[in-house]
Write a structure and sequence with these properties.
Blueprint (H helix, E strand, L loop, with lengths): L2 H17 L18 H20 L1 H18 L2 H9 L4 H20 L6 E2 L6 E2 H22 L11 H9 L1 H6 L11 E5 L5 E4 L7 E5 H8 L11 E3 L1 H9 L22
Parallel strand pairs: 3-5
Antiparallel strand pairs: 1-2, 3-4, 5-6
Helix pairs in contact: 1-5, 1-6, 2-3, 2-4, 2-5, 2-6, 3-4, 7-9
Amino acid sequence: MLSQAIDFKDESEALYTLLKPLSDADFNQKTLFKDWTLNDILEHLHMWNWAANESLVNEEGFVRFIEKAMPSIVNSGSIKSFEREWIDGLSGQALLEAWRDFYLETSERFINADPKKRLKWAGPDMSVRSSITARLMETWAHGQAAYDVLGVVRENTDRIKNIAVLGVNTYGWTYAARSDTPPGSMPFVKLVAPSGDVWEFGEPSESERVEGLAVDFCQVVTQVRNIGDTTLKVKGDIASDWMSKSQCFAGPPETPPATGFRHTKKK
């Protein structure tokens, strides 16, 4: 059984539990992520969950989807217009339930899939394990905007280790996305998990290192928080440069939010 698929389901269920009590009107609330509403977040998660599942079960169907999606996204300059067309008016509680029904199906398919099987994607092909890990990361990262706007501090679990691993594995991608090369080897990363366990990545170093809470590290590499809004201790020029623009997700280079901009709303 693929543990990342179980973690994806559990993270999705946590977000579902947060959103279930809302009224249809509540889903129109704008978040601090590009003014996306809760509806926008759900339609984004739902469509790309569908795409990941399609890549697993129907490669030809996925290729047709991408051939239609990418020109539309490029021409409009926005992913939202295509997602809104794809979702065909679904919103509020109806969208929430459609998203849940499908992520439950998707997780079951990925749980029993060959983790090394290669899947087509909008960018380079990826393994089954990487594909469902990306869906977990997207759910966790976009979910943060929902927790923030609703004034809820999320209770994280050690399943965020998947995101931490993705964060260190995409050290080089942070620079490649900017048509640049890393200024040196990846700094040493030492993180304290929600459970209190310690996770270490890379070669131990006193001169180049990132140390602190795993949650903070995950927030920085997914760009849901500025490094200045965390308690991470960063030492060394390479580590500082990386953390100033770290990006574990695909697509063009994005600028992290300004210090203090992304935060949990006070009730």
